[in-house]
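TEACHING EXERCISE
Course module: macromolecular assemblies
Task: Read the component lines below, then compare them to the predicted structure of the full complex.
Student: A.B.
Group: 4
Components provided:
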Amino acid sequence: MSGIYTGLLLGLGVLSCLVVVAVCRRMKIVDPEGHPIHLALGMMRYMPWFLWAVIKANIDVVRRILHPRLPMAPRVIRVEASQKTHLGQVIYANSITLTPGTVAVETDEGTIDVHALTRESAEEVRSGDMDRRVTDMEGER
Amino acid sequence: MFAAAMVGVLATMLLALVRALKGPTVYDRVLAVNMFGTKTVLLLSVIGFLTGRPDFLDLGLVYALINFIGTIAILKYVSTAGEEEAQA
Amino acid sequence: MEALLYYASWACLLLGAGFCFVGGLGLLRLPDFYSRMHGGGVTDTLGAGLILLGLMFQSGLSLATIKLVMIGLFLLLASPVATHAIARAARHSGFAPQGTGEE
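Instructor-supplied answer key:
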């Protein structure tokens, strides 16, 4: 990261990487979810839609914060997470939390408790649009 | 231009600090401190460009890691500290 | 092209700082803990993203841009996890969200 590429520095870097991998193997915390490269293609199709959703939600939340009377109706709803693997459910929960106006409070097998700032954002999650897209992305390998 | 962005980030940090001092529950404080840390990363990046020293980006990267681990560590501590302290 | 990039980064930096500020305002103004999380979410996504994007426009294709991308990716992965952890801890300690309650 420093822009200096001498043999000594690169060698030390490789050495420390190997040591870390060896230690992790000894601690048996290397799992098949470590490097989800198989999702890269689906991710590429999911990302633009997700970014657009985030921008829309951002503008909505900012409007509500700046409104003098703070128009909102917070609520907790429970939605289905139809992803097959834990990794897919984590991606879905992270997507919900990253979208302003909704936060994933509790996750369970197949369901997620979502705290929503307004009725509209709760409906947005409940419609299952994002859920379907994450499942599509996961299914494509 | 960088100075303007810096003022904005600094003002946000001030707001987060006020919430951290006021926050009725300990979770408000943790949330505010976490946000303060995120803004510190941004501030470090902007300072790096303002002074023409991109080395500051490395500091920002490391600070992001420490901030995340620190938040999780505080939460672990709070969740084992007991209910009556959580109201403080 | 140069001028275009210059103005794009200018706009991104100012917009990002603005979003950050509004998010901080939300953190201060919103009435209860669970809604304050959403205020923090604004600064974590668009605020941080736009400022980093503005800096990327400024640095062009260089090592600094790679570092900025790494900072952005890490914030994108870590901030929802941290927010979720805080929300979960608060809920487990028995704070009920204000408003219409559970449905």
